[in-house]
Amino acid sequence: MAASDMRKTPFAAVPNMEYKRCSSCISGLGALIGDKIQESSKMETNEIRAVIKYLCKKEMSPKEIYEGMMDTLREDAPSYSTVKKMGRISTEDKHRPGRPVESVTQENIDKIHVLVMLDRRMTVRRIEETLGILKTTVDRIMREHLGLGQLSARWVPKLLTPDQKAVRRKLSSDNLALFEANPEEFVNRFVTMDETGPITSHQSPNNNPCNGEPPKAKTVPSAGKVMVSVFWDSEGVLLLDFLNKGQTITGNYYAKLLKQLREAIKEKRREMLSRKIVYHQDNAPSLRSLQAMAAIYDSGFELLPHAPYSPDLAPSDFHLFPHLKKSLSGIHFRSDEEVIDASLETSFFLEGINALENRRKKCIDLKGDYVEKKL
């Protein structure tokens, strides 16, 4: 059939044509497309685009292509306007600048995994902003592909392995025995630390003082601060450290913080130094580095073991940070240091440490499983 006749041939007739080996006839590609349509009336979008592209090359008008598709594909046929738009070179979706990536690929899974390993408190929204991956896709990868769920605002495995449960149960039993040997002494010796994201806001006066009213506070983020380390005991906060933007906690950095902590204890709780301090922290690599371990030893602290994937057994995670974020919502401060001093009473800190007893007992009763319900 001549190419000039092809332009007048209904689309429905294409699958039944006999293709001839001559330059003026439809090529073998056309035959393959025709066979595809014959096999199934349900076509994928890319297949429809390929057919439209081919027929446009044969100089068929959008109207002819549309009418032929309506005869062949019926309700699955694209609209006339779609046929006109699909007559383009590429058969793939065009990339839209700024549009989040929706696909679940191994590359995206690996990128998200790396971010979560660096910061288990990283939110889905922050991952979306950092990697440009759609929020729903991030959440799906976290839960379905990485098997993670949130516990005390941290990402942890949704299902613990038998070995992980055994470690949690064993350490809960050991730490509980240490507490029950002398509860009052344990509480008086206990110091814990953890990191969280920025929790403060500064006051910025509104320069429109109408009606003689005092200027209103405007909420703005803490300038350039992305993480705060809190060291505290049963009486309150011992040391706050705000990490500047672009910095990360390294072994050397943390070792210097431990020296500052000892000086803070010497200034605020001098009597604690006469007893061996029971020091608690999580298992972040920088906190377990050789430099950090040496600094803990040099400070005369007794390190209390902490089980992996156990924010439900860390007072900062289950007690301090959730309360801070809830109670400080909408409140404005002139400086970072005002935050904790203005919001918490001394009894609050003691309650958090005492709560460890029941949580450890529950962990033992649950044979090492999570104390809190997982999301």
Could you walk me through the main structural features you see in this protein, from its secondary elements to its overall organization?
This is Mos1 transposase HTH domain-containing protein. Residues 46-85 form the Mos1 transposase HTH domain. Residues 198-210 have a biased composition (Polar residues). InterPro entries: Mos1_HTH (IPR041426), RNaseH_sf (IPR036397), Transposase-MT_Hybrid (IPR052709), Transposase_1 (IPR001888). Residues 83-103, 198-218 are annotated as: Disordered. 46% of the residues lie in helices and 11% in strands. With 375 residues, the protein is α/β, with parallel strands linked by helices. Helix 6 packs across helix 8 and helix 9 (162-181) crosses helix 15 (346-365). The protein has 15 helices and 9 strands. It is elongated. Strands 7-6-3-8-9 form a 5-stranded mixed sheet. A two-stranded antiparallel sheet has the order 1-2. Strands 4-5 form a two-stranded antiparallel ribbon.
